[in-house]
């Protein structure tokens, strides 16, 4: 116990140095000669006049470079939600990393002002959907047959968005990386599944 108490009493603070340590450069390569003259190291902390620490940063600085991970409700479109955020936060620019259909709920990433330049990098990251599937009748093979049908929907597939979709209705290729069955009830004709995709154009 005495050893533990002694360790707790030790001060781990770095004390300022009175003398700047020397950097011997005599054996350095030719191009690095006098390198120690280019960079002067001080042994004490010097406050920087420009900028501030994260804890002292004002709210406006956080908002101007902010990214909001928003849980979009059903009915409003992605464009409407982004317009609401722009009006509420009183900022100049807002953008989102991917369109969600009006009836779809889920994660909508909203970028503000300076962060809007990151939108393109987020759009290529792909999306993950969790859906509830209602069937017309029982499946003779049950859950195993339903899981096999999901596996056939993996890989590069042709897709044309439905009439109710918010995006342009043209034939495109979707690459489904993973399809996973969460739950299946043959008596109620219901199934819950996850799909992870990335668009190819």
Automatic annotation (TrEMBL):
Record localization: Nucleus, Nucleolus
GO MF assignments: pseudouridine synthase activity; RNA binding
Transmembrane region(s): none
Gene3D superfamilies xrefs: 3.30.70.3190, PUA domain (2.30.130.10)
A Gene Ontology cellular-component term: box H/ACA snoRNP complex
Pfam families, sorted: DKCLD (PF08068), TruB_N (PF01509)
Substrates-to-products reaction catalysed: uridine in 5S rRNA = pseudouridine in 5S rRNA; a uridine in mRNA = a pseudouridine in mRNA; uridine in snRNA = pseudouridine in snRNA
Gene Ontology biological-process annotations: box H/ACA sno(s)RNA 3'-end processing; mRNA pseudouridine synthesis; rRNA pseudouridine synthesis; snRNA pseudouridine synthesis
Alphabetically ordered keywords of this record: Isomerase, Microtubule, Ribonucleoprotein
Every Dyskerin-like domain range: 24-82
Leader sequence residues: none
Family matches, as SMART domains: DKCLD
PANTHER family: CENTROMERE/MICROTUBULE BINDING PROTEIN CBF5, H_ACA RIBONUCLEOPROTEIN COMPLEX SUBUNIT DKC1
Similarity comment: family membership: Belongs to the pseudouridine synthase TruB family.
Assembly behavior: Component of the small nucleolar ribonucleoprotein particles containing H/ACA-type snoRNAs (H/ACA snoRNPs).
NCBIfam families to which the protein is assigned, alphabetical: CBF5
Protein task: Catalytic subunit of H/ACA small nucleolar ribonucleoprotein (H/ACA snoRNP) complex, which catalyzes pseudouridylation of rRNA. This involves the isomerization of uridine such that the ribose is subsequently attached to C5, instead of the normal N1. Pseudouridine ('psi') residues may serve to stabilize the conformation of rRNAs and play a central role in ribosomal RNA processing. The H/ACA snoRNP complex also mediates pseudouridylation of other types of RNAs. Catalyzes pseudouridylation at position 93 in U2 snRNA.
Name of the protein this chain belongs to: H/ACA ribonucleoprotein complex subunit CBF5
